[in-house]
Amino acid sequence: MLKPFEVHVQAGSLSCFQPELTAADWESLQAHAEQARDRMGGRTFWNVNSTARGGGVAEMLPRLLAYARGAGVDTRWMVVEGTPDFFRITKRLHHALHGSRGDGSPLGSAERACYDEVLRDNAEELLVLVRPGDVVLLHDPQTAGLAPALAAVGARVAWRCHIGRDSPNAEVERAWAFLAPGLAAARLAVFSRAAYVPPLLADRSVVIPPSIDIFAVKNQPMAPEVARAILGHTGLVGPVPELPAPVFTRMDGVPARVSRGADIVRLGSAPAPDVPLVVQVSRWDSLKDPVGVLRGFALLLRESPGLRAELVLAGPSVTSVADDPEGAATFESVIAEWREQPRLLRQRVHLACLPMVDPEENAAIVNALQRQAAVVVQKSLQEGFGLTVTEAMWKARPVVASAVGGLQDQVRHEVDGLLVRDPSDLPEFAAAVRRLLDDPLLSARLGAQAHEHVRTRFTAARHLSDFASLLRELDVRARP
């Protein structure tokens, strides 16, 4: 029998935000925290998703919930378990909500039966824990079918969808038809963009953009020489003598050392530390278009053979993300494309699977890689939001992103990054990357403005205030 498991979260103080906020914003955050604490007295705020590591949701939740606990709200995180068939179906739904066919498999009665059976097993354990009046926030297609059982015992259920497509098509409609029975029991639905809201949820939806925790290991300050030491140890750049130890600070304040290396497909040696790096860090997902990034970089080098730059495509170890059964196949497709390229190109492209055994170590490696990047790209074909771009912008890195989904909510073209209007347009993508590599002043200006844009709009402080408003709205809708 499948049972969900709890991920334990330690409380975190809100006081770390005070130096980063204006006096008015700090006062507002404290007021929202007090309101949430009073509103949730004697009740629990549950968050339920399908993986404890890998992807934006698993990264956002622990920090947001830690701050909520620090504010006095009893907040807990549960992760549902599933079978390989279940995760194949939910990956199909993931693609469909982006308007893509994915593997093209059906979403019929057999898939419905499998989906319902897995969630019925998980619901049995949750129903022992969840009490009437508790708030349950379900995340993404993997959990939507839990809503009826939880609502039936008196929980105030909301469902958060982190993905979507601006212009619905037949695949999007197919996904909503599959999810509709479960979502009928959700009191509210939360979306990252208003354009993602389907008609069936139009009368009970709110928009809350995602956020990053600027104090997390992935986003904490890191000296350039420490970043190079970490990347040298993992094999992502060549070693440099007399660098400091590859260390970072864990969330509990304890210093730690990066001890694991990355698994890297390359021809020849690691890039020299002074070589400009074009970097994309993402899950190995076809919608992130890593093959397209490789082809775009190949075009860039063909058009500018004297350009001194190398490409790093990085993602998690392909066996580490429980709810993504397609990661290994996507990675293999990238390797196959790499093998088709001329030798000279293969020497300048590095395919890296980053260790995930220790999530904070992984975060430190990503932090170092993003800070070392001359340009961070996110050439997604569809993108729910794209927190890897948010992270890079916080680090004042110049970014090139596709003008799709939530990426266009973050990157204002020519203001704090460059947008590629058509993600399949390789010449446009290559030209944008070349422009940033050629113009350090432009890169610095866009990076500085990107950092400020994230500081004011996409941090956990704003997100926590949005959570407080969500709790208030759920209570209002509970009134007879």
From TrEMBL:
SUPFAM superfamilies: UDP-Glycosyltransferase/glycogen phosphorylase. One of its GO terms (molecular function) is glycosyltransferase activity. Residues 47-198 form the Trehalose synthase N-terminal domain. InterPro entries: Glyco_trans_1, Trehalose_Metab_GTase, TreT_GT1. Keywords: Carbohydrate metabolism, Glucose metabolism, Glycosyltransferase, Transferase. GO terms for biological process: glucose metabolic process. Residues 274-452 form the Glycosyl transferase family domain. Homodimer. Belongs to the glycosyltransferase group 1 family. Glycosyltransferase 4 subfamily. This is Glycosyltransferase. It comes from Corallococcus carmarthensis.
